[in-house]
Design brief:
Distance between the termini: 25 Å
Shape: globular
Radius of gyration: 14 Å
Low-confidence stretches: none
Order of helices and strands: HHHHHH
Strand content: under 5%
Number of helices: 6
Mean pLDDT: 92
């Protein structure tokens, strides 16, 4: 999923340490906006954080970074479904699933995907997301 401009993407791809710092700040902003019901911004920052987490995972395909990626996908999906309940979360799920399948450090992709699967299920049964 692409959310960043080419310029910022190339900067973050060149320096994993900077990408991790940027991810942390961006995810915090996404969470802040979600808590304050500014869902448009929560989705925007959540999408940016998701792409940054994917960059970190690509640069360092270790379990910790896979967890960061899933955590960010859960935050993004939660904000996205609150922003637009008709959105297609299955596309987000599939993107994350196939990305994790390519990371050898993740032994149990199904278990890693469970939090995202829970959001997908709640959104399709119209249960409120907390």
């Amino acid at each position: 999923m692409k959310f960043l401009c080419d310029h910022h993407r190339s900067i973050l791809m060149a320096c994993t340490k900077q990408a991790k710092t940027s991810w942390h700040k961006t995810l915090q902003l996404a969470q802040f906006y979600a808590v304050n019901d500014d869902l448009g911004r929560a989705v925007l920052y959540g999408g940016n954080a998701l792409e940054i987490a994917e960059i970190v995972l690509s640069n360092q395909p270790v379990y910790e970074n896979a967890s960061r990626y899933v955590e960010t996908a859960v935050e993004f999906a939660g904000a996205l479904v609150r922003y637009d309940s008709s959105c297609n979360l299955l596309a987000v799920y599939n993107e994350v699933y196939f990305r994790l399948m390519s990371v050898s450090a993740v032994n149990n992709v199904e278990a890693a995907m469970q939090p995202l699967k829970d959001i997908l299920l709640r959104s399709t049964t119209n249960q409120p997301l907390s």
